[in-house]
Design goal:
The complex is a heterodimer of chains A (284) and B (399).
Chain A lengths: L2 E4 L2 E3 L7 H6 L3 E6 H7 L6 E5 L8 E9 L15 E4 H8 L24 H11 L8 H4 L5 H34 L1 H9 L4 H42 L10 H27 L3 H5 L2
Parallel strand pairs in A: 3-5
Antiparallel strand pairs in A: 1-6, 2-4, 3-6, 4-5
Helix pairs in contact in A: 6-9, 8-9
Chain B lengths: L2 H11 L1 H38 L4 E4 L13 H9 L4 E16 L2 E15 L10 E5 L7 E5 H6 L7 E7 L10 E10 L8 E6 H7 L10 E6 L3 H11 L4 E4 H10 L3 H32 L1 H10 L3 H38 L16 H27 L3 H10 L1
Parallel strand pairs in B: 3-8, 5-7
Antiparallel strand pairs in B: 1-9, 1-10, 2-3, 2-6, 2-9, 4-7, 5-8, 6-7
Helix pairs in contact in B: 1-10, 2-7, 2-8, 2-10, 2-11, 8-11, 9-12, 10-11
Chain lengths: 284, 399
């Protein structure tokens, strides 16, 4: 049975009715959101009266059959989801304007589960061709490129790029200083016969090891902070929305950026040093 | 030579590392500035947008105007509100979807705002749009359109627009209405990529084939001065409706819609400042460690302990100060790019900005960078202040 979500005005006056009243008119079942249940002190088995306006015109009694956790929605972050889910015929009965005939209502969306999800595009094309006035889209496209998720993703990516740029600049400054500190050692290595290329390889290997260790430390820190950040924001907004998730792809991308960047910074900083002669480097 | 001059020479002596340090601070500072602008940007921008409209109370069936539901018996409700002694003017706003017909092209989907005002004591009635060219629409056959429609439909002041509006349901099949364009206007509350048409309620009724009904999406009210008291009086006069002042609307949005950006701004500000402190501290520490011999020699020459500490602090202040200066234009540039990204969010008015420059944000930015310069210099200052002169010089000679 298709369920439809609608935020209703709960007519709480006489919301919990007597057992006799319930026996007279068996109430249909609804589900209510956890937040609404907590706020109004409702539990499974409670009877509630629902109407579409604050005066309670045409209110009908329903039985709370269950309490559910609403699907997290970043666009509604900060608002308490006071939601009721009911069977579609009940919803139409409650919302039908006076004088409107049953069966003349229209619905906003129909969700279709295909036997083979890979057929979504072809199926949508067929529906659009055969049913003018109806727009069918695969779920992946329905979200739209301008959806809040996509926009936030682009925003976070931009912030990440700026952070990487800042980190790279600092990293270069640090490696220049560290390489400069080892000028004499490099000079001696050159004087005992090691070619610049050999020293550069050594510096590169060192850079890779240090960058790998740094990336691993960063990942461990991210994994440790992941649950802390999620716990804080889930508590703050009373939502099940996951704010931070360190996926395999995220870990790989971070490593793929951090390690080459660290190694490249080390080599770049060493390059200017290695172009000087061994004698000049070793001179005090 | 004073401490700042001395620190400047130390930096100039090693230009590459000094430049990289300054650039690093500039990038971090730019991000920090942006996060500070973001923390209050939406609120400031929304308040400005509401205040600019000229109406100080919004009456609707929902707590936040524009989130579904219409005010029934709009004319009677507006008349009851207008009768209140503290009300100067009321405006009924009815919004409908419209399709603008085009010769040889697909229709343009637009939002038609129909308004009807009532003024007490000659108070001016301001439409919820700003006329850029031409004049405002007056009669039942006149409208103003936005620049985007004018460009796409090749229309201008004096032209005629052919449209079909749906005031009740999108499935209505209505005859087209022909309305004269009297002006090109800007709709501040139109969301990005939303095309706007404005006119009188009579014009909207004509476009909807007379099927408009006595309902309003929103009632705008101007009070004689005490908006909070007037909103309370409206709530008492028309129970069941929400009457909110601009401050209350902003406050409500602050509690709900905008919290995510404030939280992320707070988190990123903390991370950015910590990052800056850590990196500048490491830079200064390494730099000081490389110059321990020099510092010991200066101490041996007569430089006091406080003087070498001041040198390190000045060096930190110069790196952070120069980086901070560069971070201002860089941050504003970055803010405009980030603002463009975030304005892609659905349902955001085109005139609303996420990043708004404010004096308090700048002051906080300066304060945080100053604190960064001091905290980052603490450890290296401790190194130079506790440096054993003779032992360090001996190590330098025999090392």
């Amino acid at each position: 049975m298709i369920l439809r979500t609608l935020v209703f005005l709960l007519v709480l006056a006489g919301s919990v009715t007597t057992a006799q009243e319930a026996a007279r008119a068996p109430a249909h079942d609804v589900l209510i959101s956890r937040q609404l249940a907590t706020e109004q002190g409702l539990s499974v088995g409670s009877l509630v009266r629902l109407a579409t306006d604050a005066t309670g015109t045409g209110a009908r009694t329903f039985r709370v059959a269950g309490i559910y956790e609403p699907t997290p929605d970043p666009a509604r972050l900060g608002t308490v989801p006071r939601e009721v889910r009911m069977h579609l015929p009940d919803l139409l009965d409650v919302t039908r304007p006076p004088g409107a005939l049953a069966g003349t209502e229209y619905i906003a969306n129909i969700n279709v589960a295909l036997a083979d999800p890979a057929d979504a595009t072809a199926f949508a094309r067929d529906v659009n061709a055969r049913m003018p006035g109806v727009i069918a889209r695969p779920s992946s496209e329905a979200a739209g490129s301008a959806g809040p998720f996509r926009v936030l993703e682009r925003f976070h990516l931009a912030i990440a790029v700026v952070t990487i740029v800042a980190a790279t600049v600092f990293l270069l400054a640090l490696t220049i200083m560290l390489v400069d500190e080892r000028r004499e050692t490099v000079g001696i290595l050159r004087l005992i016969g090691l070619p610049a290329r050999r020293v550069l390889v050594q510096v590169l290997i060192e850079g890779v090891i240090v960058a790998s260790a740094g990336a691993a430390f960063g990942l461990v820190l991210a994994l440790l902070s992941e649950s802390l950040i999620n716990a804080f924001f889930q508590w703050r907004y009373d939502t099940a929305l996951v704010f931070v998730r360190i996926t395999r792809d995220v870990a790989l991308t971070s490593t793929a950026i951090a390690v080459p960047l660290g190694a490249a910074a080390t080599v770049l900083a060493s390059w200017a040093l290695l172009r000087r002669s061994g004698l000049r480097l070793a001179r005090r | 030579m004073n401490a700042v001059g001395f620190a400047w020479r130390s930096l100039v002596r090693q230009p590459a590392r000094a430049m990289l340090g300054v650039l690093g601070v500039a990038a971090v500072g730019a991000l920090l500035l942006d996060m500070l602008l973001l923390s209050q940007g939406l609120i400031v921008s929304m308040r400005d947008l509401l205040d600019r409209s000229g109406w100080d109370i919004r009456v609707s069936v929902r707590e936040i105007p524009g989130r579904g539901g219409r005010v029934p018996a709009a004319s009677e409700t507006a008349a009851r509100i207008a009768a209140l002694p503290s009300v100067k003017a009321t405006l009924i706003v009815r919004i409908a979807n419209a399709r603008i017909e085009r010769d040889g092209g697909p229709y343009i989907a637009a939002t038609f705002e129909g308004v009807s005002g009532r003024s007490n004591r000659g108070a001016p009635i301001t439409a919820p749009w700003t006329v850029l060219r031409g004049r405002d629409a007056r009669g039942a056959d006149e409208v103003v359109i936005d620049e985007a429609i004018a460009k796409t439909a090749n229309l201008d002041v004096g032209g005629t627009v052919t449209l079909r509006a749906s005031c009740v349901a999108d499935l209505e099949a209505l005859p087209p209405a022909h309305l004269r364009v009297t002006g090109i206007a800007e709709f501040p509350f139109a969301v990005t990529n939303e095309d706007g048409i404005g006119g009188s309620l009579d014009a909207l009724e004509a476009a909807c084939g007379g099927n408009v009904g006595d309902e309003a999406d929103l009632l705008l009210v101007t009070s004689t001065g005490e908006s909070r008291e007037t909103a309370a009086a409206i709530r008492a006069a028309v129970p069941g409706l929400f009457a909110m002042t601009n401050d209350e609307v902003v406050g409500r949005l602050q509690q709900t819609g905008f919290t995510y950006f404030r939280q992320i701004s707070a988190v990123l500000t903390t991370v950015t400042v910590s990052f800056a402190v850590l990196l500048i501290s490491v830079l200064l520490t390494v730099s000081v460690n490389q110059r321990l011999g020099e510092v010991a020699a200066l101490r041996a020459l007569g430089f006091s302990r406080s003087r070498v500490v001041k040198d390190v602090l000045s060096e930190s202040a110069l790196i952070v100060g120069l980086g901070g200066l560069i971070s201002l234009p860089l941050g504003l540039l970055l803010a405009s790019g980030l603002d463009r990204i975030l304005k892609g969010m659905p349902g955001i008015p085109a005139d609303l900005h996420f990043f708004v420059f404010e004096g308090t944000a700048l002051a906080t930015h300066v304060g945080l960078l100053a604190a960064t310069a001091i905290i980052a210099a603490l450890y290296p200052m401790r190194i130079v202040s506790s440096l054993p002169i003779a032992a360090t010089l001996r190590d330098e000679v025999i090392g």
